[in-house]
Structure formats: C-alpha cells, structure tokens
Amino acid sequence: RGTPREPGARWTELGCQSCTCQGGRVLCDTVSCSVPCSHPLPAPPGGCCPTCTGCLHEGVARAEGDVFSPSDGNCTVCVCLAGNVSCLSPECPPGSCPSPSPADCCSCTPEKCNFRGRAYAHGARFSLDGDDCTTCVCQGGEVQCSFTPCPTLDCPQHRRHLGPGQCCSTCRDPPAPAGCFLDDNGVEFPVGQIWSPGDPCELCICQADGSVSCQRTDCVETCPYPIRIPGQCCPDCSAGCTYMGRIFSNNETFPSALDPCLSCICLVR
C-alpha cells in the first residue's frame, strides 16, 4: 500500500486485521481479542477489542468503581470492578408475618388466609362451598376467586344448554328435520314426498335429512309427429299424429296441406 515494512514488522490495518511482513510477503489475519472480564465496554473508536476499564450492564456504560442498582433489583447493589459486575442482595431473616407488608427490601409473605371461617395455606387452591365453577387461591394472605374458563361455542344462543351441575354450556344437536321446506313458495313436503317443481320432466323427492333431490326424466321413444299431452313429460307416439297443428288418430287419412293431390295417413311406428 505504498509503505515499506521491515522483515518481521507487525501492524494493524483497518477492519481489525493484524498483519506481518515475512520473507517479502504480507500475511494478515483477524485480530483475536482476549476479554478477561464479564461486562466489557465496546471497543473505543479506532480500536478493535473491548476494554475492561469500565462495565456495560443492561445497555448502560458504567465507570470503573461505579456503584448502582439494577432496574429490576429490590435493594440489590452492584459495583463495576475491572469490567466485572458484582451484585449483592440483602439477606432477609426467615419467618412469616400475620398480614402483607409494604414493598421493602425484606417483605414477608403470610403463611395462611382466613376465608369464611376457614384457614388456607399460602398457595392453596379451593372451590367455594357448593360452587365447583369458582376456583379460589390463597396469595399473600388474600383470597382471589375466578370463574372456571369455558370454551368458545360455535352454535347460536338458542342451541346452548347448561345442564345440572355443569359449569359451562354445551351445544345441543339440532332437531331432526320433519320434512323439506322450500323457500321459493313456502311449501313444506314430508320426508319421502315426490313432486314436480313445474317442469313435468323433472321429479323431486324429500330426503330424510331435509334436503331435496331432483332428477330429470329422459324420453326414449321418439317419432316425427308425436302428440304432446299437457302435463305429461314425454310425447305420445301411440295415440296418433300431430300434423300442421291438428291431431289425427291412428290409421286416419287426410289431405296434405302442401299438395291437395296428396293423401296422408297416420301410422304408428
């Protein structure tokens, strides 16, 4: 980089690279930092390794010998020495107290709770007399009660049911359908009823689950001049012939409407 180096010389490049001149070649490697403390300060500007001349605790830089209290410590005292943070908490005498004490360095915890004429140990859980849906707990000399949590139901209100001795409601099964109700005309058909919805070639049946199943009729018999009977699905080829708007019976002869010299006859085929 334009600077002569003597053989065996060592120096530090930007990016914390430690370089040495050996046999006319430059060999570089990342600087290895040995940090002998628990809470070192970040490397100073232009430096590569953290320093133990102070402490970094909970994101706050502390000077050497600084005495402080942590954010969540109750009367805990900490000191910064050579990059290490040492904390001391006060020793509280064992024992209990008759009632909760205000928050201080050595707050006591009551041993029991007196509730409705009965004594409960600290941390005990119990239910109210005759009410298994309420759970109570003794905490710090006080009793806290709460209802048993119930699952969320996915049924409407009119289908919810609370049985005897139950804490939470359950969903009742919907009643079995007695028939099929059609919204378009307001007619209800009993299960098994067969009807035509208006098209004589379509028949519907009311299923046991309240659904409607419909199916169309396929007409197999065909002829060129069938008789169509109102209300009947398939044309009738055996009753006669329909010709130019007129109905003729079987074996009946009649003049052609296109040529008066032609005579026609209705034949069943």
From TrEMBL:
Transmembrane annotation, as ranges: none
Annotated VWFC domain residues: 1-53, 53-114, 111-172, 178-238
GO cellular component entries: cytoplasm; extracellular region
Keyword Glycoprotein among record annotations: yes
Pfam family, any one: VWC2L_2nd
InterPro entries registered for this protein in UniProt: vWF_C/EGF_Fibrillin, VWF_dom
Domain of life according to the entry: Eukaryota
Entry keywords, A to Z: Glycoprotein, Secreted, Signal
Coiled coil: none
UniProt-annotated location(s): Secreted
GO biological process: cellular response to virus
Record protein name field: VWCE protein
